[in-house]
Each structure stands twice: as C-alpha cells, then as structure tokens.
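so im writing up the methods section and need the Detected protein of confused Function record in one place, dumping it here so i stop losing it
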Amino acid sequence: MGGALSIASSVLVPEVDAVVAFYGVPSFELADPAQAKAPVQAHFGELDNFVGFSDVAAAKALEEKLKASGTQYEVHIYPRNAHAFMNRSPEGIKRRKDMAMDDEDEDAVQLAWSRSESWMARFLSS
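--- predicted struct ---
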C-alpha cells in the first residue's frame, strides 16, 4: 500500500496497530497525521522530487505532525536516493531509470527493510 494511504490508515482505521510507509504523505483533506493513533515509521529518499507529497520538506513536515500526535514514530530519509528506491523489480528499475532516477543503493534498501521488519516485530508481536 502506498505511503500516504498507510499513514492515513493510522489516523482513520482503529484496527491498525502499526504502520510502515514508503514515500508519501496524505493530503490534509484525507487525514491529518497529527491525529495518528497507531505508531508510524516512514521512509523517504533525499532526492525525491514529488514536491509536497514525498520530498524532504514533506517528510520533515510529516515528522512535525507525528510529533504533535503523541504516537510513536520514526521518519527516515535516505541520502542519495529518490522516489521508489525500494522498488527493485526489473520494471521498477527500468521505470526509475527512464525518469532519470539512477540511484541503485542496495545498502539503503537493506537498511530500510531491516528498520521496517524491526518496527513491525516491535508492535505486532504477540
């Protein structure tokens, strides 16, 4: 699920226990992250150029909103990475290269997976 929808679910869906979101912040009309009820971990690429949605400024604004929510959160920004850096499918890699996003960074991918797995184990373990 997309990052914005994941974050929105932390606000709007009471059954959600934790969220890991990759690149995207919901519009204020959909859901205000300051109202998050479930813990949120969010991942963004430093070079993401989707202004107001998943760029660094949007990530930092999200962090401020999550701080106001009082829920647990983490916001990670990966240097030298752009939008969809986790998409390592052949189609995703081609699409990213066609969009001049040539930032294959396996270390960042592995770090993001590790952080995501730890986050979910922390909040979803029984």
